[in-house]
């Protein structure tokens, strides 16, 4: 590359990533990591050839239409791309990429943490100790549920789901799943396929959600489907909040129609999440940290840079989604 293309970073990325990016590109940095509004984003984009955003920046059709013509690509620092209107991007001939694979291990760890946290009442217990309210012990004290040997249902047995399945087998869990189509035997690795969401939900003890957010999956976990789960079921979500109908889940948690929920992603995150989640004892809540490890954040950055290098060398980027 002769003249270095200009890349707008919407957020502060790890130093190692920003330094590597500067080898081949001229970055426009956000050193104070401020969250840009649309107008500021568009103003900064006027000088850029590509944007490297996170899921915190939204690119609906109206914003994409206003991006300057010189912008060639949106190289996301995320695997989820629900914050970008891919159809509008295609129409504007913008290349869009994501960062799959490199965050599967970290996200699977958080899914397992959520399962254990929700099953063993970790939030409640931690609060008792931290707030000096732990006064007693008895055989009936803080009795939770065991996940060992139980049936784990995976909604969306893709990259992350398959790692979760491998980790869960370490707890002797039996893996069930629903995808639009069954996987080939190598990838399914013995997991039991259910051809409808309802059938999956009726046959499991723990549900882990890994399907991407889209029009097709919005509110997928609705009142009717949640009612299909038995009362001891634990639900965990590391995908996107939009897959869940919050009113329906909150009602089921309040009435004991399902046992507990572990959530890392929410509708309205970070500060407008359903308020009932915070009040319920049977929730275990994390602030969207599925990929938040040093190794993974670096790997996500390098992957986004690889995509940009390919794009500006006129090659097909590895992780093109539009
Ligand atoms: C990322 C995520 O950290 O990659 C995703 O889709 O949800 C997160 O784990 C985040 O999106 C960064 O943009």
Would you mind describing this structure in some detail?
The protein folds into two domains: 6-101 and 294-312, Rossmann fold (3-Layer(aba) Sandwich); 104-285, Rossmann fold (3-Layer(aba) Sandwich). It has helices at residues 15-24, 38-45, 61-66, 86-91, 104-119, 122-130, 159-169, 185-188, 197-201, 223-227, 246-255, 275-279, 294-312; strands spanning 6-9, 26-28, 50-52, 73-75, 95-97, 151-155, 174-178, 192-193, 206-209, 234-237, 260-263, 283-285. The mean pLDDT is 97. The protein is globular and about 70 Å long. With 322 residues, it is of the alpha/beta class. It has 13 helices and twelve strands. Strands 8-7-6-9-10-11-12 form a seven-stranded parallel beta sheet. It has a five-stranded parallel beta sheet with strand order 2-1-3-4-5.
Task: Explain the layout of strands and helices.
Layout: E1 6-9, H1 15-24, E2 26-28, H2 38-45, E3 50-52, H3 61-66, E4 73-75, H4 86-91, E5 95-97, H5 104-119, H6 122-130, E6 151-155, H7 159-169, E7 174-178, H8 185-188, E8 192-193, H9 197-201, E9 206-209, H10 223-227, E10 234-237, H11 246-255, E11 260-263, H12 275-279, E12 283-285, H13 294-312
Parallel strand pairs: 1-2, 1-3, 3-4, 4-5, 6-7, 6-9, 7-8, 9-10, 10-11, 11-12
Helix pairs in contact: 1-13, 5-7
Bound molecules: 2-keto-D-gluconic acid.
2-keto-D-gluconic acid binds near residues 54, 77 and 80.
């Amino acid at each position: 590359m002769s003249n270095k293309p200009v890349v707008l970073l919407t957020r502060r990325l790890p130093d190692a990533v920003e330094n590597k990016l500067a080898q081949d590109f001229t970055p426009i940095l956000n050193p104070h990591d401020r969250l840009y509004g649309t107008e500021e984003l568009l103003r900064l984009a006027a000088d850029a050839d590509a944007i490297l955003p996170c899921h915190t920046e939204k690119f609906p059709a109206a914003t994409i239409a206003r991006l300057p013509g010189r912008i060639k690509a949106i190289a996301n620092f995320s695997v989820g791309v629900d914050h970008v209107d891919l159809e509008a991007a295609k129409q504007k001939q913008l290349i869009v990429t994501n960062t799959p694979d490199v965050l599967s291990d970290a996200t699977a760890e958080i899914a397992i943490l959520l399962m254990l946290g929700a099953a063993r009442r970790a939030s409640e217990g931690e609060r008792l100790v931290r707030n000096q309210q732990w006064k007693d012990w008895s055989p009936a004290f803080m009795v939770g549920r065991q996940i060992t040997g139980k049936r784990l249902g995976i909604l969306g047995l893709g990259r992350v789901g398959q790692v979760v399945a491998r980790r869960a087998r370490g707890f002797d869990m039996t893996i069930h799943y629903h995808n639009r189509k069954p996987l080939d035997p190598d990838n399914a690795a013995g997991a039991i396929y259910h051809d409808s969401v309802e059938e999956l939900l009726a046959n499991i003890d723990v549900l882990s959600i890994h399907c991407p957010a889209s029009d097709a999956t919005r509110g997928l976990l609705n009142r009717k489907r949640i009612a299909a789960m038995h009362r001891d079921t634990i639900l965990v979500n590391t995908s996107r909040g939009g897959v869940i109908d919050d009113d329906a889940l909150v009602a089921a948690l309040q009435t004991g129609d399902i046992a507990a929920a572990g959530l890392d992603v929410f509708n309205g995150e970070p500060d407008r999440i359903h308020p009932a989640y915070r009040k319920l004892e049977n929730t275990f809540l994390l602030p969207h940290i599925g990929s938040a490890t040093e190794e993974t954040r670096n790997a996500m950055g390098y992957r986004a840079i690889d995509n940009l290098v390919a794009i500006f060398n006129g090659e097909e980027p590895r992780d093109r989604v539009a």
